[in-house]
Hints:
Layout: E1 2-4, E2 12-28, E3 32-51, E4 62-82, E5 87-97, E6 108-112, E7 117-122, E8 125-127, E9 141-145, E10 150-155, E11 158-160, E12 165-169, E13 172-177, E14 180-182, E15 186-190, E16 194-197, E17 200-202, E18 214-218, E19 224-225, E20 238-239
Parallel strand pairs: 1-2, 2-3, 3-4, 4-5, 4-6, 5-7, 5-8, 6-9, 7-10, 8-11, 9-12, 10-13, 11-14, 12-15, 13-16, 14-17, 15-18
Antiparallel strand pairs: 19-20
Amino acid sequence: MFRLTGGADHLHFVNLGFADQGNGCWRVAQPIAGLRLDNIVATNVHRLLENFVGGNDTDASITGLVMKDVSVRGYARAVTRLQYETNEVLLEDVFGDSEAQPFESFSTGVTLYETAHHVTLRRAVMLNHHQVDVEGYWNADGFSTERDNHAIRFEDTYAAGNTDGGYDLKSSDTTLLRAVAVDNKRNFRLWGQIAMEQCVGQGPHKRGGSGTQAQVHGNPQGCSRSPTRASSTTTPRRSCSTSTTTPPGRWSAAASSTTRTRATRRSSRPPA
């Protein structure tokens, strides 16, 4: 619908609705700054916001992205994919429900790739991303980050009903504050440097495919540093432990590759 290239800076889109659209109601194809999307509703789209280069370009970074009061229902791939050097991002009150829409690969609510950094997700809700009827492992996460992403913060977020992780996080300098994960195969799947506080996991649920269900599944990147307190003057021990699996309904405070992790159990209702 909208293709944004270099110079399309400081644009504000508000009070828009979309239905039956392909890969990107907005597609950012070259570097831009100051993009804001407010009060947006979409149904049956491939992605709402796609961040992908055009032609022979090699960069389509967004500096200063704000998405607020966004609702996307029924999508094959994602609410948004953010990559390159995209930074200074705020996703606030963003709701995504894939509704288990099928795709030849799999869907993920919010996907961070390449070196995207300094991203805050506040009161974001991601539901029902499914990969089914394939051999081996079933993917599809609520939120995902990759190894070169950093400075990522989740505040009061919620992920439920996904065939893989509620949170599948490989990034460094990543904080989860009051994050909730319910009814995912692996509620929290943690690979990177993660700090958790007042987080809740409930009822992990394996729908199919290989692998075990877990509240917290720690995946070291190679052999990870041990999950103990560390300082700049102390070299943490190396560990090759690959996972922590807990019975359904029981919260575990374990995490992987983190300098400090704290988690408490509290009651929580899914956001409306």
